[in-house]
Amino acid sequence: MNWQAISFDWNQIRAFLATAEEGSLSAAARALGQTQPTLSRQVAGLEDTLGVVLFERGPRTMVLTEAGHQVLAHVRAMGDAATRVSLAASGQSQEVEGTVSVTATDLFATHYLPPILADLRKTAPGIMVNVITSNDVRDLTRREADISIRHARPEQPDLIGRLVSETTARLYASTDFVERHGAPDTLEELAKVPFVGFEVADSLVPILQSLGLDVQESNIAATTASGGLLVALVRQGLGVSILTQDTAERYSDLVEVFPDLPPIPVPVWLVSHRELHTSRRIRVVFDALADALSSL
C-alpha cells in the first residue's frame, strides 16, 4: 500500500459524507454534533487536499459537483467499513447487547411495556432495557433517553419519529360517582361536576373549555402527575377525568360520561435520535416497540 498517497484524515471524510447525505452544512453539523464553521473548514480542507471542488455552495444547500459525485461513491464505502469496524470493536458485530433506555408515562409503561419487554427478552437476551417512567418529555438530543414514547409529534430536526398508533380519550367517572351525582344530560350540568386533573389544574381547564364546558380551576377536585393515581382517584369517585378509551376499558367500574362530546385523538409516537437510531441494539428495541404498539 502507498501510505504516502493517503494525505487526508477521517474527520474530513466524515464531514464530506455527512454534508453530502444531509444536503447542507447546517444539517450535517446537527447530525455530527459539531458547529457549522468547524464542518465547513473540514470540507474545505478535504477539497484543498484533493485539489478538487466537491460542492457548489448555495445560500442554504450544498450541491455535489461531478468530482464530488465520484468521490462520494468511494467515501460511502469507507463509511460502511468504518461502521463495521465500530461494531466489531464494541462486540456488536455478532450479538446485539447493551443497555437501551426507554421513557414513557407511568400509566402507558405499566399497561403496555411488560409483555413487549418479555417478548424482546426472548429474541434479544443481551439487551437490558431501562424504563424511565416520566410525564416530562425527555430530551433525546441530550441522551436523557434512547427511545421515547410520546403523545405528540417531535419537532426537533435531530429526532426521528414514527406514528405507530392512535387511540382516543373521553370523559370517564366511576359508577359510584354517577350513582351519587347522576349522569349529566347537558353541557351546563357537566360543567358543574368536579373533575380530576392530570398534572396541574391550569393545564386541564383549557382542554375542558375547548370541549365547550364553562369550567374554572374551582371545578378541579384533585390533580396528580401519576397516571396510576389518576385512575385510582377516578375509581374512588372523586370526579370526572379525561382518560384514554383503552385505559378506561380495563376497569369495569368506570363508565363514559356525556358520550355526545367528540373524542379527543391521542397519537402514539415512537421517537429516537437520528444517530442513535443507527445503533443495532436501539434499532432492535425500536422495531420491537413499533411492531407491538401498532396493534393497539
In short:
The protein has two domains: 87 residues, Winged helix-like DNA-binding domain superfamily/Winged helix DNA-binding domain (Arc Repressor Mutant, subunit A); 200 residues, D-Maltodextrin-Binding Protein, domain 2 (3-Layer(aba) Sandwich), CATH 3.40.190. Helix content is 43%, strand content 22%.
Blueprint of the fold:
Blueprint: H1 10-22, H2 25-32, H3 36-50, E1 55-57, E2 62-64, H4 66-89, E3 98-104, H5 106-123, E4 127-133, E5 147-150, E6 159-174, H6 175-181, H7 187-190, E7 195-198, H8 201-210, E8 220-224, H9 227-235, E9 241-244, H10 245-248, E10 254-256, E11 264-273, H11 280-293
Parallel strand pairs: 3-4, 3-5, 7-8
Antiparallel strand pairs: 1-2, 5-11, 6-9, 6-10, 6-11
Helix pairs in contact: 1-2, 1-3, 1-4, 2-3, 5-11
Describe this protein with a few key phrases.
296 residues, alpha/beta, Arc Repressor Mutant, subunit A, D-Maltodextrin-Binding Protein, domain 2, seven-stranded mixed sheet, two-stranded antiparallel sheet, 43% helix, elongated
Would you mind describing this structure in some detail?
By secondary structure, the chain is of the alpha/beta class. The protein folds into 2 domains: 3-89, Winged helix-like DNA-binding domain superfamily/Winged helix DNA-binding domain (Arc Repressor Mutant, subunit A), CATH 1.10.10; 97-296, 3-Layer(aba) Sandwich (D-Maltodextrin-Binding Protein, domain 2), CATH 3.40.190.290. The protein is built from 11 helices and 11 strands. It has helices at residues 10-22, 25-32, 36-50, 66-89, 106-123, 175-181, 187-190, 201-210, 227-235, 245-248, 280-293; strands at 55-57, 62-64, 98-104, 127-133, 147-150, 159-174, 195-198, 220-224, 241-244, 254-256, 264-273. The strands form 3 sheets. Strands 3, 4, 5, 6, 9, 10 and 11 form a 7-stranded mixed sheet that branches. A two-stranded antiparallel sheet has the order 1-2. Strands 7-8 form a two-stranded parallel sheet. Helix 1 crosses helix 4. The longest helix has 24 residues, at 66-89.
